[in-house]
Amino acid sequence: KSVITKRRVIAALITVFAVLVSTWDRLSMSNFSVLAIGLALFAGTWVGFQRALNGKINSFSKRAFATAQLNFITGTSFLSLFIIILIVLGRVELQPLPGGPWWIYTGGVIGVIYIAATSLIVQHLGVLTFTLFSVGGQLIASLLLDIYSPTQGVSVSGYLVSGIAMTYIGVLVGGVRQSRLERR
Fold first, then answer.
1. Rounded to the nearest 5°, which phi and psi values hold at 2?
2. Cα separation of 5 and 128, whole Å?
């Protein structure tokens, strides 16, 4: 049972600040959207709840792929119902799947593996620690993409590197050691 502690709140705030720092040179007030920020916060909150719920389901079922299957059954049911409603209302028509390389259709398989893995990891690390590591990993991946496959006009900045370092400070502040201590 994890509790909200000052240390965990500070770790989360450091990580949020680190993400802000890592994107500082790419922010502009002309493109700023309060709605986009609000939607991102809303989605992030629900992802955290989903991870926690997946961890609970996995601790009960002891089968990570059963947890992933439940997620995909729920998601597919919701999307199917949503599409049926849109078709009935005349807002959308079904289209054939696009052609392309085989790997564009691997998202479902990767999603099953990801949800199964996260439901196992969250049980041991906790939602906050897992999320801190996840954000840090996303920032490192963005750094690698900017270095090895840069988009035109984008360069690696000190802000990005500083943000990544700060993210891992957040991991250390609220990270694995604290997570293990709280479960005892």
1. -90, 140
2. 11
Is there a contact between 164 and 136 (Cβ–Cβ < 8 Å)?
Answer: yes
Q: Which among 43, 40, 12, 4 has a CA at the least distance from the CA of 132?
A: 12
Find where tokens 């050691």 sit: 177
- Residues 6 or more apart from 180 whose CB is under 8 A from it? none
| Diameter of the chain measured on Cα atoms | 56
Q: Is the dihedral of CA 86, 91, 93, 98 positive or negative?
A: negative
Look up residue 76 and give its two tokens.
Answer: 């597919």
Helices (H), 5-126: 6-22, 34-61, 64-88, 107-125
Instruction: Give residue-wise pLDDT tens across range 101-123.
Output: 988 888 888 888 888 888 888 88
> Is the distance from CB of 176 to CB of 126 less than 8 angstroms?
no
On the question of pLDDT at 183 being above 70, the answer is: no
pTM for the model: 0.68
Residue from 170, 76, 114, 158 nearest 178 by CA: 170
**Of residues 12, 6, 24, the one with CA closest to residue 134:** 12
